[in-house]
Amino acid sequence: MTTFKNAIMDLDANGYQLQGLLPFRATKRITFAGETDDAIGDKDGALASFPIFTVTGDVQVFIFGICKTSLVGAGTLEVGVVGNTASLLAQISDVTALDENMTYLDATPALAEGVAPVVHPIGGGLDIKGKTTGTDITAGVIDFFCFWRPLSDDGNLVAA
Q: Is residue 51 part of a domain?
């Protein structure tokens, strides 16, 4: 938890100054197995909308994914919050375009893609979720990285 001592310096719960725009990092590996009922990637299952990061309070984030194993299935994938499911990472309309070592920063995955970080404020503890639609994503692995900073005294983010 962050303690705001004054307008010039933000401190973490241990009294250390927060360094940089997004001083914290959380990671989450997502494995898709959409052929299994209610697994991540099953577009009609309980995890069609799956948790990636749990948020409390208000935070700002920059998120991206790196594909570790090529995705299989012609489904769609997006990352956002409840009420705006593609707000953090735009929808990839056919995940077979997301191959091993490609970066998921936008709707068009690429190798070693460069980007200026787009920082998103998230208020009220809205969790970060992925969503699959169209057809099942039957296989593949993505490591999601979230660089973040608390904005409120109770702001926090952890892998779900």
A: yes
Taking the C-alpha atoms of residue 63 and residue 45, their distance in angstroms, rounded to an integer, is 25
First-to-final CA distance of the chain: 17
Q: Nearest-CA neighbor of 125 among 73, 47, 62, 53?
A: 53
pTM of the model: 0.90
pLDDT tens readout for residues 144-155:
999 999 999 899
Q: Are strands 59-72 and 120-122 parallel, antiparallel or unpaired?
A: antiparallel
Residue 11 CA: distances (Å) to CA of 62, 69, 83, 128: 20, 38, 32, 25
> How many structural domains does the chain have?
1
**Region of 69 on the Ramachandran plot (φ > 0 left; ψ -120 to 50 alpha; else beta):** beta
